[in-house]
Design a protein that fits this description.
eight-stranded mixed beta sheet, N-(1-d-carboxylethyl)-l-norvaline Dehydrogenase, domain 2, 2 domains, alpha/beta, Rossmann fold, 360 residues
Length: 360
């Protein structure tokens, strides 16, 4: 591993020479980890944080004590509370604001962008109310000239492991091939492998829906139902994700890649998964309000579950796991009853069509 770390440090010499600065919008754990990653490559990075104490701790102690404690941040990473400062003279922007706060921040960004630059979403969520993924929200509020360069970064990637220089592979999707090559080169190192693609919608759906499945997997583990049940949950969860993606026009193959099954397995089994932790605590009998009060960071799956059910209903897709998760979260249904209702559904073949024509 020491040799790999040395190679990754050497790779800092390989960044695109034309890049003057990258702006990272959102200083949660993931936004900070990506900002650190880019800065370690040798790119000047300006990180925007909503919270003044985060700006102060990064500037003064070189550490994001609120969201990423214990991780040293390099000198080439600067922090600011001003969106204008964060975006000034940047050749591309990375957006990592939680989905529930994304639109107002993007609206401010739209008024500040002086020239067309790529904007990469690293947010794994769906906007409530509109049921839009983040690039669709970007298309609503950012200048039209930026739309082809709106990209998405997703995949199995715990922030803490990226910061420990552990090997990670992710997917970058963008419709503009030139922008995609620039972004891929900016992000890639021997320890952070970036695969390029064009299925912007599918990559985002995978990144968002896997959080709902992680809640369900956590519930299974919290109830002590065993590895068999969790494996079945993950497999059937993938089937639901694929069904919805196909109905919405995404490439079904995307869900068998890093942003689909890769992120799904990680988030449903990894001890660092916030959504899995929430599910486990629900399965053990804790109340959702009490769980969320204890959490510093956002568990996107809680909000996304409601949006996912809305998308399923809009597109006529049966998503029984999503439906039961919503019932537990918002209708006070017991976790045990939700599992029972899933297990006692009518028998059918694994790939058999339901009476409505959907796979279930």
């Amino acid at each position: 591993m020491g040799k790999l770390v040395e190679q990754a440090q050497d790779a800092g010499q390989d960044q695109p020479s034309a890049i003057r600065r990258v702006g990272v919008i959102g200083a949660g754990a993931w936004g900070t980890a990506l900002a650190r990653h880019l800065a370690n490559k040798g790119l000047p990075v300006m990180l925007w944080a909503y919270e003044p104490d985060v700006v102060a701790s990064i500037s003064g102690q070189r550490e994001n004590r609120r969201f990423l404690p214990g991780i040293a941040l390099p000198p080439s990473l600067s922090a600011t509370g001003s969106l204008a400062d964060a975006m000034q003279d940047c050749d591309w922007l990375l957006f990592a604001v939680p989905s529930h706060a994304a639109r107002p921040v993007l609206q401010q960004m739209g008024r500040l962008i002086a020239r067309p630059v790529p904007v990469v979403s690293a947010t794994k969520g769906i906007e409530e109310g509109t049921l839009k993924v983040m690039t669709q929200v970007m298309h609503d509020v950012l200048p039209a000239g930026l739309h082809p360069m709106c990209a998405v970064l997703s995949g199995p990637s715990f922030a803490a492991e990226v910061c420990r220089d552990q090997p990670t592979a992710v997917t970058l999707a963008c419709r503009d091939d030139r922008a995609c090559r620039l972004l891929q080169a900016s992000l890639m190192t021997p320890l952070f492998r970036v695969y390029a693609g064009r299925d912007v919608l599918g990559v985002q759906l995978g990144g968002a829906l896997k959080n709902v499945m992680a809640l369900a997997a956590g519930i299974v583990d919290g109830l002590g139902l065993g590895h068999n049940a969790r494996a079945a949950l993950i497999t059937r969860g993938l089937a639901e994700m694929n069904r919805l993606g196909a109905a919405m026009g995404a490439d079904p193959r995307t869900f068998y890649g890093l942003s689909g099954i890769g992120d799904l397995v990680l988030t449903c089994t990894g001890s660092l998964s916030r959504n899995h932790q929430v599910g486990m605590r629900l399965g053990r009998g804790e109340r959702l309000d009490d769980i969320l009060k204890d959490m510093q960071a956002v568990a996107e799956g809680v909000r996304t579950s409601h949006a996912a059910l809305g998308l399923a209903e809009r597109h006529g897709v049966d998503m029984p796991i999503v439906r039961e998760v919503c019932a537990v979260l918002f209708e006070n249904k017991s976790c045990a009853k939700a599992v029972t209702d899933l297990m006692e559904r009518a028998a059918r073949g694994e790939a058999e069509a339901s009476p409505t024509g959907d796979r279930s």
